[in-house]
Design a protein that fits this description.
Elements: H1 2-28, H2 32-37, E1 52-62, E2 69-80, E3 83-91, H3 93-96, H4 99-111, H5 123-138
Antiparallel strand pairs: 1-2, 2-3
Length: 139
């Protein structure tokens, strides 16, 4: 009887140990480059936007619906004469105080588009900023 209980216990340990590992393997199979390619950045038609300042926020999750990678950005976008005049990253603080991200915002203003190169090593955060700009202006 004890041998049977040991076998059942051992089998249960193996099964319960495999469940989290199986879940992780699905996450590890995510191709980050494919995820990034599938983020739909749409340039707002600035001709349809009234001059003014607009606040936008966006949270990007990879893979969608999980908490594996969550990046939220809040921006303030100033539009004048159908052009980006200023983009200010308001949060999170690590982006707000980063020269790399201020250069990202400057590229949007200079090029007049949100389709700019992301910050190397911070692709998800960059995409959150760019999508926040898009959301601010789409309102």
């Amino acid at each position: 009887m004890r041998a049977l209980i040991r076998k059942i216990t051992a089998a249960a340990v193996v099964v319960f140990a495999a469940i989290p590992l199986g879940g992780c393997s699905g996450i590890a199979a995510l191709d980050p480059q494919e995820f990034v390619r599938n983020v739909d950045l749409r340039n707002p038609d600035l001709l349809q936007v009234t001059d003014g300042s607009y606040k936008g926020e966006y949270t990007i999750s990879a893979p969608p619906g999980t908490v594996v990678v969550n990046r939220t950005a809040e921006v303030l976008v100033h539009i004048e004469d159908a052009a980006y005049r200023e983009v200010t990253i308001r949060s999170p603080r690590r982006l707000k105080d980063s020269s790399d991200f201020s250069r990202l915002a400057d590229r949007v203003v200079q090029r007049g588009t949100i389709k700019v190169d992301t910050v190397s090593g911070a692709t998800y955060s960059s995409l959150a900023v760019l999508k926040a700009i898009e959301k601010a202006v789409e309102r």
